[in-house]
Give the backbone structure.
Amino acid sequence: YMLEADQKICVFIYHKEKRMPETPGSLDLKKVAASFPGVEVVEDLFEDHWETSAGRLEQGIRNHDLSRLVFVSDRGSNQSSLFQKEATRLGLNPDQVSLVNVKPVFGGAESEPELVRERSGLLLKQALLRLQPAEEPTLEKVETVPRLLILGSGPAGRLAAREALRLGFEALVLVDGKDPGRVGYYDQVSGVQEDEPSLSEMTAQKGFRLVTEAKLISLEGQAGRFAVRYLDGEDRVQEEAVGAALVALAPEVKPNFEAFGLEPSRRALPLSQLETLLSSPEYRGKLIPPGGLTEIVFLSGLAAESGPPVLARALSDARKIQGLENTQVYFLSGNLKVAAEGLEREYTRAREEGVIFFRFTGQLPVVKAGEADLQVEFFDEIIDRSLILNPQVLVVDEDLLPHPWLKELSPVLDTPLDSKGFMAPDQVYALPVRAPRPGIYVVGGSRRPFPGPEEIRGEVEEAVLSAAELIGRGGQEVESRVRIDRKKCTICLTCIRSCPHQAMHFVFRRPQAHPLACQVCGVCAAECPMDAIQIKDFQDAVVLREISGNFTDRKFDTVAPEVVAFCCQNSADKTLQQALLFREPLPIGFEFIKVPCAGKIDPDHV
Ligand code: SF4
Ligand code: SF4
């Protein structure tokens, strides 16, 4: 039924102490295990009597010529390395050993014996149904290139290049503009650049190359070894190999003048210009001349919702000006989003120091900018009357927009943009900086408009380390978990078209999953019209066996429907484990089947 006729399974139940009485759950586990065909031995092992237990384990394996070993532990999965070690010592390979962790349902077992019985039995049954004859792993040799392609030379790009060089990789930096050394406004305010080496310092380092006015033509191949083609500043086509690519473009800054029909002028300033003026005593004097009262109006978060970093700057600037002699600041804003760290405090202090706030939920203030004067007219909802201010200076906040190069890079890198134009891969189960196409990473302001300096640093580190780990596996043998039956394959190309990670490629005129790029999602296996593809641990035969196994004990006397949930191992299955852990009730008739990805659900299985 489950294994070859001459193959056997042994189930060992692992306990902490020999003296502890058996729980209803563990007794029931034994019954479930013993009732399965092919299960030859059900034995107890005790942590506090490990030597004797290990002896029994060895004896079990030798006496019964076991092909599979199942450990059931109520102590969490941290025992798995111990079991693996023991099994290896006894001549089994890791594929022949399974660990069933019943800890989630076992804790406090005595209080709910029925539930424990049902849940632990369910977990063990699933594990036994998933057993399959052990196979030798298929290893493939993969060559990788120790070079990182970095797109952008802003703070994140420079950090990434420095990290790559530090880890012993080369860094090829492509920039779309002419002047990569120009420190953009975003660089100044992001706070990342302060302790970073300048581009000229980096250019002197071995392994660093910078290409300006570059145009990316294509990025072919798979993670670990991409072929990148680009036009250099003199319109010559260049081609070279890189191991991974990192998108690190800073967002573009756009002052929100348009919404108020304003033009930038000496008296109507964007936030960044105000900051430049405030940074020098000479300019500050021009902004706030000595003598009479200077009134300054801030327009913040009115045209578009401002992100916490922009709001933080506006509040801090407002406080600085309010702190100067003879000044009064009026802060006109939409809903103040003060959720980021320290913002609430900054807002309270600004109020205490005399900044006057007006909040708008509906109509925006009307701004008139004449030759000699400025007028801001609005209706205040709180005091229920119209007001007119005549400030000497008007400060308009700024929006951060996606870097325009992202639009061009997106189709070349096969990495989509979100509705705002940022490249936001945000995979819920993988590193957020990892794009769906393995080997491509997106960090900082390329993903969203308002990353703080710490976030940028963290993301760059995460991305470069992940790329280094991927590239570092080059030259080694990597296990391929996707098997393609070359005799069945008719080269219809469905798998190449349907792979969401661009991992399928041609080798000797047949498709093959690249072991570094393949995420073992199983989409190709579900789509192949010839059933030529099998995914290790999720072979069709195993899934079908699980389905039929689940239905063998179907209770026809119940009116509740049988529900088979195909649970993606990255999301739904994790939720299910939580439900088991927190003893959430599962619907009557509920059975689950773990799949590597929802895309692996085959119509045949349904
Ligand atoms: S989908 Fe199946 S039959 Fe078609 S090329 Fe891929 S492996 Fe071959
Ligand atoms: S298992 Fe998924 S990632 Fe791997 S080749 Fe198939 S479709 Fe692509």
